[in-house]
Amino acid sequence: MDSDLRNVLLGLISATVAAIIARLVELFRKHRLRVRTTKKHPIGGIYISTYTDAMDGVTRTIRDKVYINQIGATFSGYSQNLETGRRFDFDGQIVNEKYLAGTYRGEQREDEGLGVFYMALHLIKSGYIEGLWAGYGAESGSIISGQWKWRKMAQVHIRDCTPSDSILPDAVALLNDSLGSGYVSMAEAEELTLTPEGVVLVAENEHGQLRGVGTAHVMEDPAKEDLERRLHSAGIRRPNLMGTKVGLLKSAAVVPRGRGQGIGLQLINRRLSRLKELGCSTAVVLAWDSGGVHSSTGVLESAGFQRVADLPEYWREPVGEETFDCLSCGRPCVCTAVLLRRSLYDFDGEGDSRKKHFWSRTPT
């Protein structure tokens, strides 16, 4: 009897040990598979995405920021509209090591938007994921579809630039190459780094190479008076800027190979943070609208800026940049300046504030 009981117990122990070993082997196999899949298809990270949507027969392009958390062949995350803040949660899996297949749904309970997406992975090593989405559009009340493209957000280090910084000449050269020869002088850039209310930021990659530059400063009274005058001439009700501390995003540029990877957006948000630290309650920017590729209004609106007014031939009249060669029209520049603004009261560093602008067109 004791021998039989001992044999039963040994059998149970052996079966249990065998089951535990089998389970450990299975977990190890799955872990290795997850590691292999993650290394082969590293989709986790932050992306800047664009997708096409149709509303009342009009196709529009929308920019989102996409966050992905990957566990092997499965993933989850969300996309957030850079202009409105609307968010969609999603999850899915890698299919046949070639595609992403998933579903999305509105984050808010009252948001009825939901659907599916199917993305190709053949460009993932270059930081791209692209494909199609389809679903029910809560705004249109119908089934809609379109393209969806993700580009991995560049990982850059953004820091202050000093007058003696070895990278400053390269930053000035990048601004002039991007905005027009003579737009920024070395002396102007050095002066901006020296003033307590000036901001010169550079974005560098992990090797310390320049990837972008952005400048900003607190507006002085003469500059605010000039802006008020120009707004009044354009039929915009005069704002009381003289009693408000206003920050100006002055100029920015990203190296050609770094464009479309969120570097410009990161430079905008970092400059807004600095202006808020300097006590500004509002930020404004005069963006180029040459009617071509040099317009920067899209990324500014993605950062929460709202369009206030169009000021034709703004740079024909000297406003500090005495002479420069516009990339579109030469000298003098006759491009339209687009004035955009945003509140900094509840700005949190990510561009989520959505305040209405305080300028309105004069009633006729």
What does this structure look like?
The structure is a single chain. The protein is of the alpha+beta class and 364 residues long. 26% of the residues lie in helices and 37% in strands. The protein has 6 helices and 17 strands. The protein has helices at residues 2-40, 168-179, 186-194, 221-233, 263-277, 297-302; strands at 45-55, 58-71, 74-81, 87-95, 99-106, 114-120, 128-137, 142-152, 157-160, 180-181, 198-204, 210-218, 246-254, 282-289, 306-311, 325-326, 336-343. It has an 8-stranded antiparallel beta barrel with strand order 1-2-3-4-5-6-7-8. A 7-stranded mixed sheet has the order 9-11-12-13-14-17-15, sandwiched between helices. The radius of gyration is 27 Å and the shape is elongated. The model is unreliable at 352-364 (pLDDT under 50).
